[in-house]
Amino acid sequence: MTKIISSILVSLFFITTFYAQQPTAKNRTNKDNTIQTQPKLIVGIVVDQMRYDYLTRFYDKYGEGGFKRMMNEGFDCRNNHFNYVPTYTAPGHSSVYTGTSPKYHGIIGNNWYDKEIKSSVYCAGDDSVEPVGTKDKAGKMSPHRMKTTTFTDENRLFTQLQGKTIGIALKDRGAILPAGHTANAAYWFHGQDEGRWISSTFYMTQLPKWVQNFNNSNIANSYFKEWNTLYDIKTYTESTADDNSFEGGFKGKEKTTFPYDLKALKDQNSGFELLKSTPYGNSLTTDFALAAIDGEDLGKDNITDVLTLSYSSTDYVGHNFGVSSKEVQDTYLRLDKDLERLFNALDQKVGKGNYTVFLTADHAAVEVPSYLSSLKIPAGYFDGKAFREKLNAFLKATYNADGLVENYSNNQIFLNRAKLSEMGLKLQEVQQTIVNEIIAYKHIDKAYTGMSMTQASFTAGIEELVQNGYDQKRSGDVVYIFEPGVLSYSLTGSSHGTSFNYDTHVPLLLFGNGIKHGHSFKKTHITDIAPTMSALLGIGFPSGATGQPLEFVLEK
Ligand code: ZN
Ligand code: ZN
Ligand code: ZN
User: Fold this and answer.
1) How many CB atoms lie within 10 A of CB 270?
2) Distance CA 302, CA 40 (A)
3) How far is the CA of 53 from the centre of ligand 3 (A)?
4) For the residues 164-172, what does the mean pLDDT come to?
5) Please, is 403 exposed, middle or buried when counting C-beta atoms within 10 Å of its C-beta (0-12, 13-18, 19+)?
């Protein structure tokens, strides 16, 4: 009897010490019993086209409850970068949530040339699904081209599908890719003459009541009002003159200056699409996110849910007006207010300390090249048409054949491999011949053969970034890189896509449950975010994750 009791006591002792020594996420010690040990809700925020220095440039103008709250209460990774090219929206969102780069998740661009079907495909386009909430083909979308899992998928698997995932963004790809393959729902905004949040049969057969109610409300329409600066424009000393020649502007308004009368501009600027290109698009996203938290009961029970939010308007405004514009500054000051509204609602609905937020971007952006040129900084514009004509003429002269190039896209050249073998040409030799030729062309700084990307392993420099963005199955035969400051773009507005710091350096802020307070200049990568979330939750890593958990941001 005594023997049995003592052996039970011994086992109990072992069990207790064993668990006491295991610092798993589940039994994180906690002084305050009112706070959940696991986050009830993770909110992942991607700000489309946000540069790291938007945190510091506008710091003095931000309120206490938005960006600054994240910086002052949470952890600020100040040297966070993309570790691949191209730095576009779809690869960006995929990499944040899969913890790996296009080499593994396969989202090599927003659009790319599909070698098998010999035509261009859209990252989220899916003809096998039907639109929900609209009849428009804008609803025929799913994440089927993304090859690996997201941490949101891993959370669904870990919780036996009890933890929810909801994805929200104006842009379909900003909603669909982060939410992963197992999402309960992804919602995106269909502008044009509809102005509705929509989805696809990949997720559901009809919109839930709360989405229908939101769409039937007047909320989207209410944003067709004047867009003026949030504060007196004279106080916007962190941006250039409102009226300058580096801004695009809207149809129907000659000057690129405040105020913008959105009601008057609506018809000439594709109806509800116009809202996307103003800070009100981000406000509408916040309105919808708050409705989702209620409608889906997010963060209500003890099983972790994930809300993926992407703020798309920052990208549209940046493309239109440029990094240094007053319009971009105003868009960030207003986004700061939307974040404050979101965090206050989370405090109220989920409870302070019960949720975890991270905020990052899908890529940053370059100053308008014509503006850089005006300041004598090397920059310029790449003429794609001239490039293609020159190369085609060269190939004709060299091989006495037409149509050797099948497609040009995302700074890659796709060769007609069938024709090459028909002519008895060696793929590797033709790739190298093209590299040797185009390296002499204007604004091309570097060029690589597809073969070199698959036959060696690069561990540093731009070659590593090119390789991390190179999918052997989907990518092209030659990859070329522009000189710094060069875009293939209009002469107004900013864009992105390169491996330079102006495109790769983005914020990474984390705060809430399980996150330390502090900051670091240690280099972190965008692919570290998903493994960090997996570590926080104690769940499996996404299937292709190559990043590392950022131990120094986690309390345990
Ligand atoms: Zn983007
Ligand atoms: Zn302006
Ligand atoms: Zn963009």
Assistant:
1) 14
2) 6
3) 17
4) 98
5) exposed
Query: Are the C-beta atoms of 386 and 74 separated by less than 8 Å?
Result: no
pLDDT the model gives residue 161: 98
Q: Are 24 and 539 within 8 A, CB to CB?
A: no
Residue 105, burial from CB neighbour count under 10 angstroms (0-12, 13-18, 19+): buried
pLDDT band at 312 (very low <50, low <70, confident <90, very high): very high
Separation between Cα atoms, residue 186 and residue 199, nearest integer Å: 6
Q: Which residues of 215-225 are buried (b: 16+ CB within 10 A; e: fewer)?
A: beeeebeebbe
- Provide, rounded to the nearest whole percent, the portion of the chain with pLDDT above 70: 94
- What's the 89 CA to ligand 1 centre distance in angstroms? 3
Of 87, 89, 229, 433, the catalytic one is 89
Contact by Cβ (8 Å): 148, 542: yes
- Which ligand has an atom closest to residue 366 CA? 3
Cα gap 223→230, rounded to integer Å? 15
Is residue 89 part of the annotated active site? The answer reads yes
CA distance 362 to 231: 28
For residues 434 and 449, what is the distance between their CA atoms, to the nearest angstrom? 8
Q: What is the pLDDT of residue 37?
A: 83
| Residues whose CB falls within 8 Å of the CB of residue 440, separated by 6 or more in sequence, listed in order | none
Residues 386-434: pLDDT tens digits?
999 999 999 999 999 999 999 999 999 999 999 999 999 999 999 999 9
Secondary element (H or E) of residue 318: helix 313-321
* Residue 556: per-residue pLDDT: 80
- Within 10 angstroms of residue 96's Cβ, the number of other Cβ atoms is 31
State in Å: Cα 172 to ligand 3 middle: 14
Distance CA 88, CA 81 (A): 13
| Chain segment 501-548, per-residue pLDDT in tens | 999 999 999 999 999 999 999 999 999 999 999 999 999 999 999 999
Query: H-type helices in 135-181, by residue range?
Result: 151-158, 172-179
pLDDT at 23: 39
Q: Residue 293 and residue 355: Cα distance in Å, rounded?
A: 12
Residues 6+ apart with CB under 8 A from 5: none
Q: What is the pTM of this model?
A: 0.93
- Encoded amino acid at 551, one letter: E
Domain at 41-370+505-553, CATH class: alpha beta
Which one of the ligands is nearest to 324 CA? 2
In the reported structure, the alpha carbon of residue 323 is separated from the centroid of ligand 3 by a whole-number distance in angstroms of 12
| Assigned fold of 383-442+444-482 | Gyrase A; domain 2 (3.30.1360)
Q: For the chain, which residues make up each domain, given as ranges?
A: 2-36, 41-370+505-553, 383-442+444-482
